[in-house]
Amino acid sequence: MTVDSPRTVVLLRHAKADWPQVPDHERPLADRGRLDAPSAGRRFADDGISPDLALCSTATRTRETWKLVAHEMPHRPKTVYEERLYDASLGDLIALVGETPDDVSTLLLVGHNPGMHALADALSGSAEGDTLARMTRGFPTAAFAVVSFDGSWKSVEHGVGRLTAFWAPHESDSHS
């Protein structure tokens, strides 16, 4: 793969978390989250989303989400649990994407809001259909955005990508 090959970044927000009396980092998925995460995984499989590398926040809810999503996928990518995804700023997320190895064509980030929504919005200079309008209305738990761009991972910056898909588990229709 050349450094100018097409790249895709998939941004998955963790599924709905519970609020037990534990530190934020240790919050587990709620019952609804345990139902929604596999739905996201099935949508990945149906849409042919096949990451080469998954970077997942170390928080309990993101690790649980990723396990349930990955179980529904025909191909499980290499997974790295990345502390920097927890409580990451937009700048932190852009820097993290920029560190992706050149041999990765599709990167998945499993993280938190507001970061996942902010990164999808920042990278999306254009969009297919009504994807941007739908994403702008909100980025709920277990939702994901798919942004594609040309160039190296190091060239990632505001507006370089095209939002090609946005999916949320409880949308009233089946838009991609």
UniProtKB/TrEMBL annotation:
SMART domains: PGAM. Transmembrane segments: none annotated. It comes from the Bacteria. PANTHER family: OS09G0287300 PROTEIN (PTHR47623:SF1). This is Phosphohistidine phosphatase. It comes from Actinacidiphila rubida. The lineage of its organism: Bacteria, Bacillati, Actinomycetota, Actinomycetes, Kitasatosporales.
